[in-house]
Write a structure and sequence with these properties.
This protein is mostly helical and about 575 residues long. About 65% of the residues lie in helices and about 0% in strands.
């Protein structure tokens, strides 16, 4: 490998690191939080019980390091560079030299693009790398023993890497045909022998040890794609590229330095240009908010939503929680699209993201049992039936705060078998043995003060009353007061809002959103804008006067949907929820 190729590989790794680790760190958070890798024979044996299980085990071992995006980005970039290097080593069997090494990165580029789909799991790139590495081993087998080797190895390779065995078999056939000649009959016999053996293995496995799995998973791999019974066509394209690229690179003539640099530039720039194809902006916006909520970067959530306004109630839940945690919800909530009460605490949805954000909102409000339920339901909704380190941790903590120490120990014992959650679980077990240690943690002590002493049943339709009760129980819980007033405004329950406003301190300035709601109530009750209370600012009075005049003269006036009227409580009341606001001209 010459110096130019080394620079190209380094630049490619740097591009992958930046595009994923810097631009989209939420990608690593998403993968890490939907698995719970545990050391121990029980976990390993469960993975070894199905084809491709060892590959899944290795991939999950790597993914646990995605807890820290900068570490995960280094691993991911290194894995893609390793695949490119392995493709080049295989290409040398077909006569390749150093001049076209950058083209060996094409399968890595396709993998990087394909893995932008958050449902693609890391088992696929690990399987591709394993298949290529095994072909290097196959070339070292003496000619007379290759038939016996494949007879024994094909079933084993299939069990280890699953779908990747097709890459291994295809390259092995190509290597043998190049070495022993391209006689059509012999080639057909080789291909037929490989295919028949693999089909026999798959059928035997499908009717014995993997009877509970759909046949498509047995052929195309278990846990290659998060959603069962779905195999995207792009998976086959990636596999085909890993097979064809070494042969094509091997057929190319040697070229000069200029061609080498041009090929490297094209490959390095290909992924940033193709990335928008698989990185859906709306999905990644939600994942970004979920990631920032998890690490409690409230200012970052607000800053992100200023540039990318939430387009649904799931994203709005994370934004409103961040605003409340920073004490800005009463002032700024209508600067952003709002989606009714579901934008504060969403109803349960059978997906893996939205309820996780709602669970965090319930936790910080002091609704421990609701946080427990949302975390438990979110973990149960993981579509490939994995457990989650993030949600298991929150479940254990919720049980501990609820006084159910036995169940807290059960979940903490699971976390003790992990790498990053182990020390945290050990401290939680100490708190279970000595509950007085719980209040030494300021956050947990505050949550315990917020928590109601007796369990209560409530419906989401009565959430504002429940939140008011939380505040009355502990006036320190200003988050509950913010949520209660916001809930009344979003449901346009103005009588409840006025009653709850009595809880706001009189000596403080009334926040902007509250001023707008009170001005709205005053206009409804009196029918005039004259003699408004002093706590309503001149800016709010002037905006309401303009809004009222435009509504009375021309409700279709486009000025109604421009700042500052767009960002008011009255616009929300008249023109509805956030999705309608986003569609206004």
């Amino acid at each position: 490998m010459n110096k130019i190729n080394a620079i190209i590989l380094s630049l490619f790794a740097a591009v992958i690191y930046v595009c994923y680790g810097v631009v989209h760190p939420e990608w690593f958070n998403y993968h890490e939080q939907y698995q719970l890798f545990m050391f121990g024979w029980d976990y390993l044996s469960e993975r070894l019980s199905y084809a491709s299980g060892l590959t899944v085990y290795v991939s999950e071992f790597l993914v646990q390091f995605y807890m820290f995006p900068y570490v995960g980005a280094a691993i991911w970039a290194g894995l893609l560079v390793l695949i490119g290097w392995l493709v080049w080593r295989v290409a040398r069997f077909f006569g390749a030299d150093n001049s076209h090494l950058p083209l060996s990165l094409l399968p890595s580029v396709l993998l990087a693009v394909y893995c932008g789909d958050q449902y693609v799991m890391m088992a696929l790139p690990v399987a591709v790398a394993s298949a290529l590495a095994l072909t290097l081993l196959y070339d070292k087998i003496s000619d007379g023993r290759r038939g016996y080797w494949q007879l024994l190895m094909l079933p084993l390779v299939y069990w280890v890497i699953g779908y990747g065995v097709w890459i291994y078999a295809a390259i092995c056939i190509a290597i043998d045909r190049r070495k022993f000649g391209y006689d059509f009959v012999k080639t057909l016999a080789f291909v037929g022998g490989y295919v028949l053996e693999l089909l026999a293995v798959i059928i035997i496995v499908g009717y014995t040890v993997m009877r509970q799995y759909p046949f498509i998973d047995i052929i195309c791999g278990v846990n290659y794609y998060r959603e069962r019974l779905v195999v995207p066509f792009m998976q086959h394209i990636v596999a085909l590229s890993a097979i064809v690229t070494p042969m094509v690179v091997g057929c190319l003539r040697s070229s000069g330095r200029t061609v080498n640099i041009i090929e490297g530039g094209v490959v390095v720039l290909a992924f940033p240009l193709l990335m928008p194809i698989s990185h859906d902006k709306n999905i990644y916006s939600l994942l970004k908010i979920d990631y920032l909520v998890r690490i409690q970067e409230w200012d970052a959530v607000i800053k992100f939503c200023e540039k990318n306004p939430p387009i649904d109630d799931m994203a709005c839940t994370g934004l409103n929680l961040a605003l409340a945690m920073k004490g800005q919800l009463p002032e700024r909530m209508f600067e952003f699209p709002q989606y009714g009460q579901n934008g504060l605490i969403s109803m349960f949805a059978r997906d893996m993201v939205s309820c996780g954000i709602t669970a965090e909102a319930c936790y910080y409000l002091g609704l421990i049992n609701s946080a427990l339920r949302y975390n438990y339901d979110t973990q149960a909704a993981i579509i490939n039936c994995n457990m989650s380190g993030r949600f298991t941790r929150r479940i254990a903590e919720a049980y501990m705060l609820d006084g159910n120490y036995e169940l807290a120990r059960k979940y903490a014992d699971m976390l003790r078998k992990t790498l990053y959650y182990s020390s945290w679980a050990g401290k939680l077990l100490e708190c279970c043995d000595d509950p007085s240690l719980i209040t030494q943690n300021k956050r947990r002590a505050r949550i315990l003060r917020f928590r109601l002493p007796k369990d209560q049943l409530f419906m989401l339709i009565d959430m504002d009353e429940m939140l008011t009760n939380l505040y009355k129980h502990c006036p320190e819980n200003v988050i509950a007061l913010q949520y209660s007033l916001a809930c009344s405004m979003l449901n346009v329950k103005m009588q409840n809002f006025v009653m709850s406003m009595s809880q706001v301190k009189k000596d403080e300035r009334v926040p902007k959103a509250y001023q707008e709601a009170l001005a709205f109530v005053y206009l409804q009750n009196t029918g005039t804008l004259q003699n408004m209370p002093d706590y309503i600012s001149k800016e709010v009075k002037d905006n309401l006067e303009v809004f009222n005049r435009l509504m009375n003269t021309n409700p279709n006036n486009p000025d109604l949907h421009k700042s500052p009227l767009l960002q008011t409580f009255w616009h929300y009341v008249v023109f509805g929820r956030g999705e309608q606001r986003c569609q206004t001209p």
